[in-house]
Amino acid sequence: MDNPNTNDAGRAKEMPLLQLSGVSKQFVHNGNTIEILNDASFSMHTGETIAVIGESGIGKSTFLHILGTLDRPDQGTFHFQGRNVFEMGDAKLAEFRNKRIGFVFQFHYLLAEFTALENVMMPGLIAGRKKKEFRTEAEAILVRVGLKERLSHRVNDLSGGEQQRVALARALVLKPQILLADEPTGNLDKKNSAQVHEFLVELNREMQMTMVVVTHNMELAQYMQRQMTIVDGRLVAVNAEKTGGKYANMDYSCSGVGLFHDHRRPGVCLGTGFSEIGKDRGKPANRR
Known about the structure:
By secondary structure, this protein is an alpha/beta fold. The chain has helices at residues 8-11, 60-67, 90-100, 116-126, 131-144, 160-172, 190-207, 218-223, and strands spanning 18-29, 32-44, 49-52, 75-80, 83-84, 101-105, 178-182, 210-214, 226-231, 234-237, 259-261, 269-271. The strands form three sheets. The protein has a six-stranded mixed beta sheet, with helices on both faces. The relative contact order is 0.15.
């Protein structure tokens, strides 16, 4: 499976599909103000895929929630196709979210009392689509994710991998322009994780699906066209000399979740704190 390629020169001339500018977000905890995002800016073009990686607590989920309009920033703007979406009222914003953005989380949040098909139909019914017509579309996307024989199975009768594929189908059934995924393989074994990886890459190729994935899974991150993290409340590129600090001397030549090659010690992997695998620090690189 090859990494998708981007046409950076062509995209530079296009208006970004989405653009965050000067976004800040704070929380108050026990009387203390915690700054999560600080004057953060970010943009994506149609069909681009990005992985946001890094240790817990740096603001990845907060960033994803703002991008998904589930939370509003304290300062800054979010333009989608040139329109500042946070100027919308709550009702219009909810409509925008339902039609334009698909969400996949680490926990699938499926309704256990309903079948796979009924779960996938939910977004369309909420959007006012006719049940009979929308059923056909829901069936088609379930077939596309490999669940043709599981349409009438209830959630508790499905495996963990199957449940996550139902969640993916539900996120995609309205054909959103953006897919936001928060640890989509966090609860899956290696085999099911690989299937989700493949499907996400295929989605990007087939549908030009714009995708932001928050993950600790470095194998999944490598399949995204860009990798970013959050440093001091701002989004920065990973594996770029301009980044500086602890992310400057990293690449993806080492295998294993959270392992990078240390340029100062050729052939040695460096643990980054992206996952709890300190025992692997200093482990020889596994070249592939």
